[in-house]
Amino acid sequence: MSLMNIFHVAGSAVSAQSQRLNVVASNLANADTVAGPDGQAFRARQVTFATHLFGATGNAGVRVSTVSEDPTPGRRVHDPRHPGADAEGYVTFSNVNAVAEMVNMISASRSYQNNVEVMNTTRQMLTRTLQMGQ
Amino acid sequence: MLPRFSQVLDFQAQALLLRADRQRLIASNIANADTPGFQAREMDFAAALRAATAGAAPADGALRTHPAHITPTLNLAGERHLRWAAASQSSLDGNSVDMDRERASFADNAVRYEASLRFINGSVRTMLDAIRGQSQ
């Protein structure tokens, strides 16, 4: 049944988008964390999507291929009275860009909604198909 | 009388199958709206339906002219009629899914699927009425 495969496709997309949303949430939660004693602050993470084929042609789902760390150095602020300051009086914050993360969040949530709508429409179509001839 | 009914039913059944496959195709495009490098696909529905109802003769695919030729296995009913969708606005990551167009196609295809279903239901009801006659 061809319509049943839509649930796999849309389901994989929903799962990938929710993982993206999860990463955004963890980035935003750590937006203001400072470097620990090792001098390493939190690094923002980004997911990369890749097409995942389910056998037959036309069944192109999505999966998260990699979760990569943003290599840019963290924000450094001069504040000698801060408990996390280093020997020179600088505090290293995480390199999370809050604006970019918010944009990413909205994009992920819209894509999530689109795929849920696809599943709802497909469910209706399947229900009508089951009622065929009655 | 009965062959005519079954012809109508067969035509609508073919249309229904192709509609379901097209729906799956569009769902794949929507699912991959954020995948870098994904190329959207679209079905030439009119050509696919014409080929499906005219018989099994391949319209523009490879013809088997020798018994040793391999028959291509087709997983999708209208697979021979798949086209690459052109992006109306190119994106930097090479993704060619146009979300507005895909959503419109998805809604349009769902309605047309429903229409095919109603045609089938109508034919079945007509046939049942003919079987029951005026006695009830």
List the helices and strands and how they pair.
The complex is a heterodimer of chains A (134) and B (136).
Chain A: H1 2-29, E1 45-53, E2 60-69, E3 76-78, E4 90-92, H2 98-130
Antiparallel strand pairs in A: 1-2, 3-4
Chain B: H1 2-31, E1 41-43, H2 45-54, E2 82-84, H3 99-132
Antiparallel strand pairs in B: 1-2
Helix pairs in contact in B: 1-2, 1-3
- Give start-end ranges of low-pLDDT stretches of chain A: none
Low-confidence stretches of chain B: none
Q: Give the quaternary arrangement of the chains.
A: heterodimer
Output the helix-strand order of chain A: HEEEEH
Q: By helix and strand content of chain B, what is the structural category?
A: mainly alpha
Taking the sheet with the most strands of chain A, its summary is: 2 strands, antiparallel
Helix content of chain A: 40-55%
Q: What is the count of structural domains of chain B?
A: 1
Tell how many strands the DSSP assignment of chain A holds: 4
Beta-strand content estimate of chain A: 15-25%
The total strand number of chain B stands at 2
The averaged pLDDT of chain B comes out at 82
Q: What's the helix count of chain B?
A: 3
Proportion of residues in helical segments of chain B = 40-55%
Give a nutshell description of this structure.
Chain A is built from 2 helices and 4 strands, in the order H-E-E-E-E-H.
What does this entry look like structurally?
The complex is a heterodimer of chains A (about 130) and B (about 140). Chain A is an alpha+beta fold. Chain A has two helices and four strands. In chain A, strands 1-2 form a two-stranded antiparallel ribbon. In chain A, helix 1 packs antiparallel against helix 2. The longest helix of chain A has about 35 residues. The model of chain A has no long low-confidence stretch (mean pLDDT about 90). Chain B has about 140 residues and is mainly alpha-helical. Chain B has one domain. Chain B is flat and about 70 Å long. Chain B starts with a helix and ends with a helix.
